[in-house]
């Protein structure tokens, strides 16, 4: 998104690793604090005012109603809301589509109200959405996050996103952004990795090129090509 | 019909409110009427008219036009000296903000004086300063546009949007500046002389302002700012000369500029004297002038209509401290460029650029470097890249003249190398992405260097030389490719792209690249010692050496450098291995926890 700003959806950067995993397992249906958190998928326009109000309130970018309509009308099953005691306290807006030669999901807006942050609500919203994307056949999921938004970076990092690129001065305040990317496992990848001279991808294997037991030129070329193909796709 | 809405030539206005509301009521929940072209771009750029958050024209405060602002007296020509100093300072702050990627209309041209420089003619100091500012900004803008490394960076917009970025006679700004400088300098001498000593004639020593006690301080303040402005202008003109002809002079002016910057810095104490000290506000947040007062004659909104049709945004001009810091860094970065010896070969230049980037230079400095390196498409503005490469390749004259494939290869290599040099001058984030993309080109070049030869020349002396050439070319391309991959991987550290779980993989790749580079280096050395004559020595001797007849080249300097680079690569490789082992050990000891991520595994991370 050209101008999306993300707030700290989840201040969980400092939480212990073990603690995080357990929280995710329990699906946070009984959120910390009083009252359950209810997660619903978008149904119809009557919910749109809630979503707009929440996002307008928490994010500083002004979005027109058309922006919301674009995302939510075309991809209603990628829009989720979190309710607490009847009030909408968190929402997620996404899209997916063909991008060059991959089918890619994109997370556009994610908001959780301040009082309910740090409870894994955002993580839950994102997790549900990613599952839908995966089941719909997406190869990958991407989004942009400000480099200073540690909460978001931790949230997505825990879900397996990596920082694929850094975008210089992406935001109007002059800050850089990371493009975060999550690649889903694909069955044919196992074969692809055996190309290029039979290299094992085990990172712990010691590789001593001085033994000259393989053709470097061939390998270098293949590696260079596959490197650049992967980079082009990112 | 509403009389308030006048009919145009071919138009009549009808009130459609009731029609629209009845149609709206017909739509059920979830129905949307939209044009055919309603896609992401249209949705994102749609604005709600008359919403002040979105509609730039709806802002109710502030002047609507430049003329309105002038008429309301927002930019008086008669200024007291303290006010003038504030204006000078704020202009500098605006320039720094602009070069950091903000719109010209909201920075430099938020200055009402700059929007109409001619108007300032009655005030000599103001006029000279403004004219020089405009000329300087124009040069900077042109340089950045020419270098063409800013396009997709979104950190600089070169379009002027109708702003008066150039003016008649701006090249004479120096003369104006010199005149006013002389006047102020004289006044300063007069102050220092003191009333009791020399006789002052009343005409040529008009005080800048009323309070004689403050006169000297203000003279100093004005003078150092004028001199800084002048030095900056000189630097820009000298650095613009191609082939580095102006670099030495530029360096002298950089020294002057830096020293005047120091003077400007020390004038802050004098200028801010008497301002209520605000202990709560940090010095950084204090205003964009040395005195801390707000400068007269600036209005951010007056150019509102010249901005792109996006929601209105206010930008903050750099603080005074940050402005001074920016210019200091810029001058030092420019100085480093000026120190580039114009005799460097291609590989040394690449090294220079790589080292230069560690200073994290800003856009203008990088643009200047790129213009110097690739002026007119030639290396350092002198040699076409193909020629420079021939020197690097050390290809025998005979092969170069007769072998088409070698020639074709050299042309291709020149193209790819030029691209590489240009990429090396972009900001590191963009650079990494581009490096990844050009790997394909380097891979292709590597293939091209190994094209099969025409059988008929094999066995001949030319054939031998061709084969050896081929090996050297292959080795060169392979080494360069390794360099590109290595830079790509290392930039990932600088840009903070790798998370803990990715380090092992990165070091593994890095280690492999380093050892590949080492392999090629060693291979190249073992092939070149049975001498291939360089084109120069062939000319001198007038005869060709056969096959492996040894003309041992003087060993010592080359050997030392060669062994050093071999050892260095070996060391780096060992470091990588060390890191891999350490990370492995820490992981096995459960000091480092790798989480299981629910959506993918390490395999996917490796692929990315």
TrEMBL record, chain A:
SUPFAM superfamilies associated with the record: Acyl-CoA N-acyltransferases (Nat)
Domain of life: Eukaryota
InterPro entries assigned to the protein according to its UniProt record, in alphabetical order: Acyl_CoA_acyltransferase, GNAT_dom, NAA30-like
Gene Ontology cellular component terms for the protein in this record: cytoplasm
Keyword annotations from UniProtKB, A to Z: Acyltransferase, Transferase
Keyword Plastid applies: no
UniProt keyword annotation of Transferase present: yes
Domain N-acetyltransferase: 37-185
Any one Pfam family match given in the protein's UniProt record, by short name: Acetyltransf_1
Chain intervals with Basic and acidic residues compositional bias: 1-21
GO MF annotation terms: protein-N-terminal amino-acid acetyltransferase activity
Region (Disordered): 1-33
Protein family (similarity comment): Belongs to the acetyltransferase family. MAK3 subfamily.
Protein name: N-acetyltransferase domain-containing protein
Organism: Physcomitrium patens (Spreading-leaved earth moss)
Gene: LOC112274275
TrEMBL record, chain B:
Ranges annotated as spanning the membrane: none
Pfam families in UniProt: Mak10, TPR_NAA35
Subcellular compartments: Cytoplasm
Domain of life from the UniProt record: Eukaryota
GO CC terms of this entry: NatC complex
Major place of residence: cytoplasm
Segments forming domain NAA35-like N-terminal: 30-143
Region (Disordered): 529-555
Residue ranges of domain NAA35-like TPR repeats in the record: 337-604
InterPro entries with a match to the protein in the record: NAA35-like_N, Naa35_N, TPR_NAA35
Alphabetized UniProt keyword annotations: Cytoplasm
Family classification: Belongs to the MAK10 family.
Protein name: N-alpha-acetyltransferase 35, NatC auxiliary subunit
Lineage, opening ranks: Eukaryota, Viridiplantae, Streptophyta, Embryophyta, Bryophyta
Gene that specifies this protein: LOC112278100
């Amino acid at each position: 998104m050209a101008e999306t700003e993300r707030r700290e959806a989840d201040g969980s950067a400092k939480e212990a690793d073990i603690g995080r995993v357990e929280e995710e397992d329990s699906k946070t249906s009984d959120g910390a604090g009083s009252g359950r958190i209810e997660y619903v998928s978008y149904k119809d326009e009557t919910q749109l005012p809630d979503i707009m109000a929440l996002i307008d309130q928490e994010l500083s970018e002004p979005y027109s109603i058309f922006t919301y309509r674009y995302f939510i009308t075309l991809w209603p099953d990628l829009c989720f809301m979190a309710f607490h005691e009847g009030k909408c306290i968190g929402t997620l807006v996404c899209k997916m589509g063909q991008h060059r030669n991959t089918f890619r999901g994109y997370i556009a807006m994610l908001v959780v109200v301040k009082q309910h942050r740090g409870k894994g609500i955002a993580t839950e919203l994102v997790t549900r959405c990613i599952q839908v994307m995966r089941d719909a056949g997406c190869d990958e999921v991407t989004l942009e996050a400000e480099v200073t938004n540690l909460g978001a970076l931790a949230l997505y990092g825990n879900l397996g996103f990596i920082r694929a690129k850094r975008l210089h001065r992406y935001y109007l305040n002059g800050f850089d952004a990371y493009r975060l990317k999550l690649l889903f496992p694909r069955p044919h990848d196992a074969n692809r990795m055996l190309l290029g001279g039979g290299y094992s991808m085990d990172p712990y294997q010691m590789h001593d090129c001085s033994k000259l037991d393989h053709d470097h030129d061939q390998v270098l070329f293949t590696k260079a090509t596959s490197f650049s193909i992967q980079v082009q796709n990112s | 019909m509403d009389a308030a809405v006048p009919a145009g030539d071919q138009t009549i206005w009808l009130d459609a409110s009731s029609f629209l509301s009845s149609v709206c009521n017909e739509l059920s929940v979830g129905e949307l009427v939209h044009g055919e072209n309603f896609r992401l771009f249209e949705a994102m750029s749609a604005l709600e008219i008359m919403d002040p958050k979105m509609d730039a024209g709806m802002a109710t405060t502030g002047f609507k036009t430049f003329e309105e602002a002038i008429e309301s007296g927002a930019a008086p020509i008669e200024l007291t000296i303290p006010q003038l100093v504030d204006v000078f300072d704020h202009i500098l702050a605006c320039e720094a903000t602009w070069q950091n990627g903000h719109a010209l209309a909201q920075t430099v041209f938020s200055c009402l004086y700059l929007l109409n420089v001619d108007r300032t003619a009655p005030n000599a100091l103001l006029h000279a300063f403004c004219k020089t500012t405009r000329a300087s900004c124009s040069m900077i803008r042109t340089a950045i546009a020419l270098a063409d490394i800013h396009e997709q960076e979104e950190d600089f917009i070169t379009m002027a949007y109708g702003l008066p970025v150039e003016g008649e006679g701006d090249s004479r700004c120096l003369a104006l500046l010199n005149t006013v400088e002389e006047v102020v300098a004289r006044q300063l001498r007069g102050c220092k002389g003191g009333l009791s000593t020399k006789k002052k004639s009343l005409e040529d020593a008009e005080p800048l302002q009323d309070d004689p006690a403050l006169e000297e301080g203000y003279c100093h303040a004005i003078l150092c700012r004028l001199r800084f402005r002048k030095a900056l202008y000189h630097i820009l003109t000298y650095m613009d000369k191609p082939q580095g002809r102006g670099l030495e002079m530029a360096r002298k002016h950089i020294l002057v500029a830096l020293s005047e910057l120091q003077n400007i810095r020390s004038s802050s104490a004098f200028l801010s004297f008497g301002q209520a000290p605000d202990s709560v506000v940090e010095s950084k947040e204090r205003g964009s002038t040395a005195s801390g007062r707000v400068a007269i004659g600036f209005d951010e909104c007056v150019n509102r209509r010249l901005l792109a049709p996006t929601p209105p945004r206010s930008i903050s001009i750099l603080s005074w401290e940050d402005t001074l810091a920016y210019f200091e860094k810029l001058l030092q970065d420019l100085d480093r460029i000026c120190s580039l010896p114009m005799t460097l070969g291609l590989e040394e230049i690449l090294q220079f650029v790589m080292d230069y980037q560690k200073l994290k230079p800003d856009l203008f400095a990088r643009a200047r470097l790129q213009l110097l390196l690739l002026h007119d498409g030639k290396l350092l503005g002198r040699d076409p890249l193909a020629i420079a490469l021939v020197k690097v390749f050390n290809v025998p004259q005979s092969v170069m003249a007769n072998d088409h494939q070698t020639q074709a290869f050299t042309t291709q290599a020149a193209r790819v190398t030029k691209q590489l040099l240009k990429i090396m001058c972009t900001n590191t984030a963009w650079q990494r992405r581009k490096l990844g993309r050009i790997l394909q080109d380097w891979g292709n070049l590597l293939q091209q260097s190994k094209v099969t030869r025409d059988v008929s020349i094999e066995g001949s002396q030319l054939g031998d030389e061709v084969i050896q050439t081929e090996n050297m070319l292959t080795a060169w391309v392979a080494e360069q490719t390794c360099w590109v991959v290595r830079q790509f991987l290392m930039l990932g550290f600088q840009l903070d792209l790798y998370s803990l779980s990715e380090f092992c993989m990165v070091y593994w790749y890095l280690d492999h690249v380093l050892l590949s580079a080492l392999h090629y280096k060693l291979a190249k050395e073992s092939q070149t010692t049975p001498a291939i004559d360089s084109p120069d020595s062939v000319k001198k001797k007038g005869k060709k050496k056969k096959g492996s007849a040894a003309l041992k080249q003087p060993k010592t300097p080359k050997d030392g450098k060669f062994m050093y680079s071999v050892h260095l690569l070996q060391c780096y490789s060992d470091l990588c291995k060390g890191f891999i082992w350490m990370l492995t050990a820490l992981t096995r000891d459960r000091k480092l926890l790798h989480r299981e991520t629910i959506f993918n595994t390490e395999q996917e991370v490796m692929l990315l």
